[in-house]
């Protein structure tokens, strides 16, 4: 049995949330099964990093309201399913104040508007991850995600697909200092609004991507993320086609 309790100051000088609170518990049933839970709350969600993770086409000049995750609950189980095969299944429920969403600007489809649910949004997520270790250097994985968001003032959110299916592999080279992860991902039931403000579902999206991570020293690394190698002009946002090839990278430093 393990338990963890954490409180951390966040943006106290700006008065945007005061503290970050998190409690975790887990219990192991032998060597093959673990059950865990997590409760957290009072978390600021709309810093610029989280905005970019939802939509990298937005600008840092956007003025953001403060979205607060008042409380979040996560429960899950992980363990060994078969020899060399591990799994992790979890679900979470979150209550969010002033949740932010993106939609395409009607006058300039290459730009995005930011809208807010002015009440409390309730989000449910379900995630299933299975990993098979073929060797010490090669593994295969499958990841399925589902989410549902209920809002008070917005009929249906459109900022994220409802279902995603991802399948890929991981290759470890150079004494595990180089990790190459090619994968396929399929996005289903993508919600959007039409030009007459009706809720519509966009076609499903098939994408092929690759993540490359290299560690030079214990605290310095380089990463490269490549998306849409199939060269399709997918539409995750209505009236806006994604770039045929999307490549970006950077340097990570740990202190």
What does this structure look like?
The protein has one helix at residues 48-54, and strands at residues 2-9, 19-29, 33-44, 68-82, 85-104, 112-133, 138-150, 163-173, 178-188, 190-193, 199-202, 205-217, 220-227, 246-253. With 255 residues, the chain is mainly β. The strands form 2 sheets. The protein has a 12-stranded antiparallel beta sheet with strand order 1-2-3-4-5-6-7-8-9-12-13-14, with no helix packed on it. A two-stranded antiparallel ribbon has the order 10-11. The radius of gyration is 20 Å and the shape is globular.
Describe the protein's topology.
Elements: E1 2-9, E2 19-29, E3 33-44, H1 48-54, E4 68-82, E5 85-104, E6 112-133, E7 138-150, E8 163-173, E9 178-188, E10 190-193, E11 199-202, E12 205-217, E13 220-227, E14 246-253
Antiparallel strand pairs: 1-2, 2-3, 3-4, 4-5, 5-6, 6-7, 7-8, 8-9, 9-12, 10-11, 12-13, 13-14
Put the structure in a nutshell:
Strand 4 (68-82) and strand 5 (85-104) form a beta hairpin. With 255 residues, this protein is an all-beta fold. It is globular and about 55 Å long.
Low-confidence stretches: 7-19
Largest sheet: 12 strands, antiparallel
SSE order in H/E notation?
Answer: EEEHEEEEEEEEEEE
What's the mean pLDDT score? 80
CA(first)-CA(last) distance: 30 Å
What's the Cα radius of gyration?
20 Å
Largest sheet, order of strands side by side? 1-2-3-4-5-6-7-8-9-12-13-14
Strand content: over 45%
Helix count from the secondary structure assignment: 1
Structural class: mainly beta
């Amino acid at each position: 049995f393990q338990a963890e309790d954490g409180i951390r100051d966040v943006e106290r000088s700006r008065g945007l949330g005061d503290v970050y609170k998190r409690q975790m518990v887990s219990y192991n049933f032998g060597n093959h099964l673990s059950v865990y839970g997590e409760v957290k709350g009072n978390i600021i969600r709309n810093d610029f990093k989280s905005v970019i993770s939802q939509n990298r086409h937005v600008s840092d000049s956007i003025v953001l309201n403060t979205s607060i995750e008042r409380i979040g609950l996560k429960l899950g189980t992980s363990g060994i399913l078969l020899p060399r095969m591990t799994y992790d299944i979890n679900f979470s429920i979150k209550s969010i104040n002033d949740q932010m969403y993106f939609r395409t600007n009607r006058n300039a489809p290459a730009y995005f508007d930011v809208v807010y649910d002015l009440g409390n949004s309730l989000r449910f997520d379900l995630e299933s991850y299975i990993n098979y270790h073929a060797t010490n250097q090669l593994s295969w994985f499958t990841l399925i995600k589902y989410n549902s968001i209920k809002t008070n003032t917005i009929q249906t959110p459109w900022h994220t697909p409802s279902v995603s299916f991802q399948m890929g592999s991981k290759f470890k080279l150079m004494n595990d200092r180089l990790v190459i992860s090619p994968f396929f991902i399929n996005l289903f039931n993508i919600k959007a609004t039409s030009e007459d403000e009706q809720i519509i579902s966009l076609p499903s999206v098939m994408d092929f991507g690759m993540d490359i991570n290299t560690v030079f020293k214990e605290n310095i690394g380089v990463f490269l993320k490549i998306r849409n190698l199939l060269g399709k002009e997918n539409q995750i946002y209505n009236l806006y086609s994604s770039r045929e090839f999307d490549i970006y990278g950077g340097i990570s430093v740990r202190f």
